[in-house]
Design brief:
The protein is α/β, with parallel strands linked by helices. It contains 17 helices and ten strands. Strand 1, helix 1 and strand 2 form a beta-alpha-beta unit. It is globular, with a radius of gyration of 25 Å. The protein is about 50% helix and about 15% strand. Strands 1, 2, 3, 4, 5, 6, 7, 8, 9 and 10 form a ten-stranded mixed beta sheet that branches.
C-alpha cells in the first residue's frame, strides 16, 4: 500500500501520504471533536487530514488548530465563506496524497473507510472506489440504507458500461462514499461548482462517467446524518434552481466530451427525472416557484435532453413532473397543478386536454389513497369520463377544482357520519 513511500515507526509516511482526506468545515464546532476522533482512529494511518474552514464563526478554527498541534497529519486551511463546493476545491488543490476522498464534518465514518477504499483502488487499479452508505434520522435515531448497490453487481472492479442504464443509480452524486485516484482527477481538471446546494452533482457524475474502471466495496462504511427537514427545505427554497444548473452543466459537459450516448444518455435521463422529482417536492408549497422550476426542467427535458414523447401528446418529462407531485397532500397537489394551466409547453388543445385528463385521473387516485375509501366511493367523487368529456381549453382547471371540492366534502361527511373505510383494491 505504500507504493514506495518511506514510512516512520508509527506507520505514517514521511513523503506524500497514501490518502488525502478533505473535510469542509462551516460552524461545525459541536461535531468536530467526534469527527476528528473518527479520522484519527482510522485503520489506515498513512493519510493527511485537510480541514478547510469556510469562514466559521463558532470556534471551529480553534478546535482544528488544537488537534493539529497533537497530530502532524492535520492541516488547517481557512477561507472566506464561499460554500462547500469552493472549500472542497481548495482542499483538492492542496492535497498531496495518491488517493483523495471528500468527507463531511458532521457525519459518521467507519474506522475502515479509508483502508478498504484505498485497498480496492490499489488491488483493482481503478480510478474510483465506491462503498455503500446509510443514513440516520437525528430526530428518531432510526437508521436505514441510503446507498446500496444492486445485487447483480457484487463487489469488485467494473467498467462503466457494465452498469448499463443503472450507471447513475450505482454511481450516485454523493461524493462522501467515493475515493478517487488523485492524478485521474488532475487529468480531468474537474472542479466542484460554487452553488448553494447540489454543488457536488456535476463533479461526481462527470468523474464517474470518465473512469476507465470503478471498484465497488459492498459494505456500508459511511452514515449520513439527516437534519431537520424544515431547515433543508428552507435552504433549498433560497436557491431553487441549483439542481437544474448542475444537471444542465453535466449534460453540456457529457455532450462536449462525446459521452452523451448509449448507456450514459439513458442513465442521465433517469438521474434528471429523480432530481426533478426531488426539486418539485421541495418547492411544492410555493405555487409560483413550482411553476418556474417545472418549466425549467420540462423545457430542458424536451428541447435539450432528448426525452421522448408519447401518444397522448405529452412528453415523458411533463407526465413525470406532474406525477411526482402525488407524494403531497390532496390540497398541495391541487395548488401545485392549477398554476400550470395555459403554460407555453401546451401548444395545442390536444395537449391541454390530455394534461387535464391525466390530472383528474391522478386526483382520483390520490383521493382514493388519502381517504382509504372504496373504489365505488371514489368513483362517485371523480368520474373521469364525465369530467373530461368535451373538455375545453379554458375550463379544465374548473373541473379539477370541482372534483377536489367534492372530495373534501366527502371527507367531511365521512368524518361526521363515521362512514366505514376500506382499503382500495
Amino acid at each position: 500500500m505504500d507504493g514506495g513511500r518511506t514510512t516512520s515507526s508509527n506507520g505514517i509516511s514521511r513523503n506524500a501520504p497514501c490518502v488525502s482526506v478533505v473535510v469542509p468545515v462551516y460552524n461545525a464546532a459541536s461535531r468536530l471533536d467526534e469527527t476528528i476522533s473518527m479520522l484519527r482512529k482510522q485503520s489506515l494511518v498513512d493519510c493527511e487530514l485537510i480541514f478547510v474552514d469556510d469562514g466559521s464563526v463558532d470556534g471551529s478554527d480553534e478546535i482544528v488548530l488544537g488537534y493539529s498541534e497533537e497530530d502532524s497529519r492535520i492541516r488547517y486551511l481557512p477561507q472566506n465563506h464561499s460554500g462547500a463546493g469552493s472549500a472542497r476545491n481548495r482542499g483538492m488543490d492542496a492535497a498531496r496524497g495518491e488517493y483523495l476522498i471528500f468527507l463531511d464534518a458532521d457525519d459518521i465514518y467507519s474506522s475502515q473507510i479509508l483502508g478498504k477504499l484505498a485497498a480496492a483502488l490499489e488491488i483493482d487499479g481503478s480510478d474510483i472506489a465506491l462503498c455503500e452508505m446509510d443514513s440516520i434520522d437525528m430526530r428518531t435515531g432510526a437508521t436505514k440504507p441510503r446507498v446500496r448497490f444492486p445485487e447483480m453487481y457484487p463487489g469488485g472492479a467494473y467498467e462503466p458500461s457494465d452498469f448499463g442504464s443503472d450507471f447513475f443509480k450505482v454511481c450516485t452524486n454523493n461524493p462522501v462514499n467515493k475515493m478517487f485516484r488523485r492524478d485521474f482527477l488532475k487529468r480531468l481538471g474537474l472542479k466542484y461548482q460554487s452553488l448553494q446546494n447540489t454543488n457536488d452533482l456535476f463533479f461526481v457524475c462527470a468523474a464517474c462517467s470518465s473512469a476507465s474502471r470503478l471498484s465497488l466495496v459492498k459494505e456500508s462504511l459511511y452514515t449520513y446524518r439527516l437534519s431537520q427537514g424544515r431547515s433543508i427545505q428552507d435552504a433549498y427554497l433560497k436557491s431553487p434552481f441549483c439542481t437544474f444548473i448542475a444537471l444542465y452543466t453535466l449534460h453540456s459537459w457529457l455532450v462536449e466530451q462525446g459521452r452523451y450516448q448509449g448507456f450514459i444518455s439513458s442513465s442521465f435521463k433517469s438521474l434528471a427525472m429523480g432530481n426533478a422529482n426531488a426539486s418539485l417536492r421541495k418547492c411544492a408549497p410555493d405555487k409560483g416557484l413550482f411553476r418556474e422550476v417545472c418549466l425549467q426542467f420540462t423545457r430542458a427535458m424536451n428541447e435539450r435532453w432528448g426525452f421522448p414523447g408519447d401518444g397522448a401528446g405529452l412528453s415523458a418529462a411533463q407526465r413525470y413532473a406532474f406525477r411526482c407531485m402525488m407524494g403531497s397532500s390532496a390540497e398541495a397537489l391541487r395548488q401545485a397543478l392549477l398554476p400550470l394551466a395555459g403554460e407555453r409547453f401546451y401548444s395545442s388543445k390536444t395537449k391541454v386536454e390530455a394534461a387535464a385528463r391525466m390530472f383528474v385521473q391522478l386526483a382520483s387516485s390520490k383521493i382514493r389513497r388519502e381517504l382509504c375509501v372504496s373504489d365505488d366511493c371514489a368513483n362517485a367523487v371523480v368520474d373521469v369520463e364525465s369530467v373530461t368529456k368535451d373538455l375545453a381549453i379554458e375550463d379544465w382547471s374548473d373541473a379539477l377544482d370541482a372534483a377536489f371540492e367534492a372530495a373534501f366534502a366527502l371527507r367531511a361527511n365521512m368524518s361526521g357520519a363515521g362512514c366505514p373505510k376500506t382499503n382500495p383494491s
